[in-house]
Fold this sequence. Notes:
The complex is a heterodimer of chains A (197) and B (185).
Chain A: H1 12-20, H2 24-46, H3 49-65, H4 76-106, H5 123-127, H6 129-142, H7 145-156, H8 161-168, H9 172-189, H10 191-196
Helix pairs in contact in A: 1-2, 2-3, 2-4, 3-4, 4-8, 7-9, 8-9
Chain B: H1 5-15, H2 21-33, H3 35-52, H4 63-79, H5 88-113, H6 117-124, H7 132-146, H8 160-167, H9 176-179
Helix pairs in contact in B: 1-2, 1-3, 2-3, 7-8
Amino acid sequence: MVDTSNNKRIADEELIARFQQGDEKAFNIIVERYKDPLINFVYHFLGDRIDAEDVVQETFLRVYRNKHLYRNIAKFSTWIYTIASNLAKTELRRRRRRRLLSLSQIGFDDKDFELPDEETQTPEGIVDGEMHGQIIQKEIDALPVKFKEVVVLRDVQEFSYEEISQILGIPIGTVKSRVNRGRLRLQKKLKHLLEEN
Amino acid sequence: MIPCERFKDKIFNFLDGELEDDVKEEVQQHLQSCAVCAEFYHRIHSLKQELHNMKPVKAPASFQIVLRERIRHELAHKRGFGVSSPSPTRLWIPAIVMASLILIVSFFIYRQFSHPYLPDITAEAGLTITDEGDVSRIQYVIDDLDSYPPSVQYPSNSSPIAVVDSLFDTESFTPIQDLYQPVRF
């Protein structure tokens, strides 16, 4: 799951403890260590890079502001992913409100619900890895939030079921059931793409 | 394509590597004998691979610079100086003080150059002030009326209106020099 690069020599929990004692360098290492995995997670959750960057910036600001709230009873990664996940969900709710507002103001706009152009889904096009990614991301975006968050955490970020359970604050059984239901939905939507493999 | 109900969850767990050895063996045997479940297994396996191989999105190079700037801004704001914008109270208090001062000064200027009775009396008496002389005459009478305490009630036939009326009665116009005697009620 979380990138185990050169900074991993110092445990996350040790870094946050140092930061709680005023060591700003420890915070910089935390940012360096988590910025990419968090942006990857939030991007797959929101489907928008700029929004993902904003959410992750806000996540680190919250960590900076509320460093004293972290207690060494949970893994630091669980704590920071919980913050990012909550902020991403808030962003999704904000978007939904904005969309409802714009629909009520200007009427039904079917552009938001357009299906991808059939011509762009030719076998030649699908061979392109980026096209694959876009198609999969589009289907992830279309999943209900409760499935999307667990599928991204499990199959993209590769967290264990136990970690996902801690991040989202739901029982492991619920996590497993949601991951499987999310996968079932995705495999139905991506049937043609998966059959090619 | 619907996999066997008994094996559906087990196939997921098998793919996640979360099965005990004996159950794992059972699933492997089933996959060799059931084409539908085998197909299902390959699809989910392929999906997991696709999700795993998605191109990772990385933070831009400016990410940490922007974050540092936001933290610096927040710290400055917390301390109440530097780049922080003035709080609303800092703007409202001088504005209210200035507005009050303007009102007080305007009131004194108004009191200095006008008399509260003058417009009312002339309007009620239906008089038109045509020259400075008219104003002086009316002002003189009013100043005299002002010398009475506010509690004193004017006699009904000697109200300020009646007095001013009499001043401008064309039939018995009082010479201006006589007006300099205070009017008695």
